[in-house]
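Much of the work behind modern protein science is quiet bookkeeping, done one molecule at a time. The fold becomes a row of whole numbers, each drawn from a learned catalogue of backbone shapes. The protein below has been through that process, and both of its lines are reproduced in full.
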Amino acid sequence: MALSGSAPRVVCIGIPVRDLTFRVEAVPARGSKANATHLAEICGGNALNAAIAMARLGSRVAFAGPMGDARETSSDFILAQMAQEGIDTTHIVRMPGLATPVSAIMIEPSGERTLTIYRDPGLWRVKLPDADELLGDCQAVLIESRCGTFSIDLCTEAQRRGIPIIVGVDRAMSLQDELLAAASHLLFASEQVQETAGITGDGEALKRLSALTPAFLAATRGPHGTIWLDEAGALEETPAFPVQAVDTLGAGDVFHGAFALCLAEGKGVREALRFAAAAAALKCTRHGGGLAAPQRLEVEEFLREHPWSNSTATRRL
């Protein structure tokens, strides 16, 4: 997609990953082995999947974060894919002597995925480029929650400038994590919001966390939709779109990217949540992880085919 200079610019902060995906009939039992029916080598990582989604949906996307040594092949593979997607890679920091993360992912016929990943601990020592360089002409920042240790200063400056900071949370956060105060929007997965709050139940977990952060709070629950707190602190739910899922890898990341793009375009959270739900649903209908993210025209057509109704509208719980 050719983008104009008026398209919103979003900065994504994360750690790219080289993914090896295997389609299997079932995850093998411990100590056994299984033949895969398909192998694909793709690029991934939470923020990179979101970046690909945003680029396809109409955003100018810049990526910042660490990658491995310039001599190792995984970096070259990922950078080539990012260039193909039109993502600005000039702010990526190469880390001498370190390895770019690699993951092995097994995907079952239901679309459910099981994965293992290696991330070099040294990647967290990265120093990001200057805030003026990253935040100039920036309408939103999207960040992986695990990257707060090396990007909190940038997020604090973005907060000072009034730039929305969307945090995609796919693991439990410490209640002392500075991103809780710096973020404008926190998008948790269901399990992680409960682990972070230390309480069972998505709604109660969100309410407990609302006492610790001024950010918009939501928990995504796959096919069960997204639960979130409105301006009055009341729980609301945005349903998921029912689809036949074949690959859920990267669906949450696509959701985060689509949501962040809507905020960068000046849309409200209700519209952003519905748009994000549509983008994630379409991604689940095709294999390829984040590289299966849909184009803008696909999402808009999907939304026209699935208008609001009493059974699909956002509702207060």
In short: The CA atoms of residues 142 and 166 lie 5 Å apart. The mean pLDDT is 93. The chain is about 35% helix and 25% strand.
